[in-house]
Structure formats: C-alpha cells, structure tokens
C-alpha cells in the first residue's frame, strides 16, 4: 500500500489512490508489487511482459533500467533522492577508477541498490541492508559473473572506504 493510500483519512480515498495507480500501471503495461515488511517496504514496478505465471522470467528482461523501485517509508523527495543517487554513483565511479573490474561493476550495483531501495548513501548501509544486497539483489539484479561473485565482499569494503574518503574531502 502506498504512503498516500495508507495515510488517507477516508477509506474511499485510499481505494481511489490504489485504483489510480492500477489504471496508470495498466496504461503503460507495468505491474506493481510491494517487497518487504511495512517498515522496510519497497514498491517495485516493472513491465508486465517480464512476468509469466506471477514470476519474473530473467530471459524476458531486455533492459533493467525499465524497472523502478522506491522505498515506501521515510521522507524521500525527488531532490533528496537525486542527491543520494549522485553521491552513490560518484562513490561507485571512484571505486571503478581506483580498482577496475569487477569491483567497479559491484560498486555500481550496490550504489543502485542503496539509492533505489533505501534512498540512503552507501556508507549508511546497515548489516541487514548489506545482507539483503548480497543474498537477494546482487544475484537477481546485478547478473554477476564468477569474478564479480568472488570479489563482491571486497568490493563492498572498497565502497565503504571510498565513501568515507569522499565525505572527508
């Protein structure tokens, strides 16, 4: 349930928000689901064409940039999200420039995860967020090769170091 729908005073208003969301999604051929518990809920939107029998089929994903994920809790306005995303991208670029591949690709995946799932700078990732990234997001969304998988733990350490250095500059 979106924040607007949940916080609506009139139950009919909440239903109206959900109906409007459904209409917009249908118009653009997208589907929505909410991932996670209420305090960590994330709205996930992606094309209907990716889904067969209720499951996303990786072979049908032509461009992962068509998917959108947004946290449903916490104050995240567009300007705030843009600033966080820019910071996270800069940290990922720093890692890529200093350490090359596969660390650059892993850093980029983690930066995208933190921006889209939590709208938080990479250095604010909790142990639980890192675990979610490693166990859920990374294998399903980063499409890592063997080198990336082998290096991901070190990559996250490099991200933390680069973020600390960037903040101190």
Automatic annotation (TrEMBL):
- Record-linked InterPro entries: DUF7108_C (IPR056494), DUF7108_N (IPR055532)
DUF7108 domain span: 1-74, 80-166
- UniProt superkingdom: Archaea
Q: What is this protein called?
A: RnhA operon protein
Lineage, please? Archaea, Methanobacteriati, Methanobacteriota, Stenosarchaea group, Halobacteria
